[in-house]
Amino acid sequence: METIDGLMVLGPGEGAVFGPPLDLERKATAGETGGWGVVIVSGMPGEGGRTHRHRGETEAFFILEGQVELLGAETVTPLGPGSFVRVPPDTEHGIRVVGDRPARWLAVWPSALDGYPEAHQALLAEDGPSEAMVELRRRHGIEPGRG
Q1: Which region, left, alpha or beta, applies to residue 86 given φ > 0 means left and ψ of -120 to 50 means alpha?
Q2: Is the pTM of this model over 0.85?
Q3: Which fold has domain 16-112?
Q4: For site-directed labelling of 47, which of 63, 107, 135, 147 has its Cα 20 to 30 A away?
């Protein structure tokens, strides 16, 4: 919804939804904000665990519910609701959902991820080879980490 004074408002459940394995609801793209995308990510216990880095771009997370572990190149940091994380450019990171309940977090995404969810789902629908997924991630500035 757009207010009469030009403010854009999305209510709960509004935004583009992308199902498994991404499980996210996009609230804004970098093209819409002028620099960063905003998504709400959902995960089940045990999901996550792979680290990656974004070339030249910062990412941030705010934990809304559940328990997660923030994975670094050499560290694991437990996080719960209300925790905020800023990931500097080119820094290895990942999130793993822990505990016995689902988790949700708000992610402020690098601009390079615009279009990634759509392309990811299209590739999965085609049952594309893993090499194509690696190339898709590379095109969107996602480099694999060690974990």
Answers
A1: beta
A2: yes
A3: Jelly Rolls (2.60.120)
A4: 135
